[in-house]
Amino acid sequence: MPQRMMRSAVATVALVMFAAAAVLGTAGLASSGATNRAVGLSTTLPSPLPVTACAGNTCQAMSISGTTVTNWATSTTAPKDVCTYAEYFDNGTIIAESSETCLSTGQQANALWSDPGSFPARAKLCTAWTGIPGKPCNTV
Fold first, then answer.
1. How many domains does the chain have?
2. Between β-strands 108-118 and 101-103, what pairing exists: parallel, antiparallel or unpaired?
3. DSSP, residue by residue, the chain
4. Segments forming the whole domain that contains residue 110
5. Model confidence pLDDT, tens digit, residues 81-118
6. pTM score, two decimals?
């Protein structure tokens, strides 16, 4: 399978798993972390999710209109037992965090930041989960 097609298949599988986890309610609610912007683990998904990226065990999906992000979701799968939280980055600077969740090997976590707001044109927006490989990014 060509590499481009493989990445597309992986992203599709990751987002299907993300949606299934949300529907099944495998994520609990969480409060905001380091900033006063509300970030939480969520059991609902925004629709549509037009921009996606995956790296390592982590994916992110965003609803973007111009330079405004209306929803910013991330999911990850634990490669080992780990306590982790999502970090949201704007051009390499952490701008928000979710609450911590502890996962068993193979368990998935999801976090959703509703209405993160506007960003400068060409801002590189990334997510990462502490202790888990991968930091996907999208540019607005």
1. 1
2. unpaired
3. --HHHHHHHHHHHHHHHHHHHHHHT-S------SSSS--B--S---S---EEEEETTEEEEEEEETTEEEEEEEEEE-SSSEEE-EEEEETTEEEEE---EEE-TT-EEEEEEEEEEE--TT-EEEEEETTSS---EEE-
4. 3-139
5. 999 999 999 999 999 999 999 999 999 999 999 999 99
6. 0.67
